[in-house]
Amino acid sequence: MQTIEQLLESKNIRVTAMRLLIYKFLAEKQVAVTLSDIENAFDKADRTTLYRTVKTFEESTIVHQIDDGTGITKYALCEKGCNCDIETDLHLHFHCNNCNETVCLTEHKIPQIKVPNGFISEDINLVVKGVCDKCSGL
Description:
Arc Repressor Mutant, subunit A; WH-like_DNA-bd_sf; Transcriptional regulator; zinc; alpha+beta; transcription cis-regulatory region binding; 5 helices; WH_DNA-bd_sf
């Protein structure tokens, strides 16, 4: 099994204590998190360092950005083997209207969407909204 250090090195990311801590924080979460969530978890850390770490992870396909319609960008770790390619790697997200959490439904892939000639797809985001299993009690 690949360690976090090996994963970062394989993506040409310099291993630092803060990068390891942020990765571990994201790995422990079962839901997507906001930059504010990360800032609150590391309240003594420099905001710029936290932001740059998340952006570095996003650019290297370690995390992906989620627009769940709340107006606040959220982030979640990518699956192993993901390259966040809009042709092959997109999955559903579920946003709970009750607890306001957003989760990746990685087992539910978004089918390839063809756009008309002359249009260029840059991002595809599909969010299902409703009540999650924790809130529904089912």
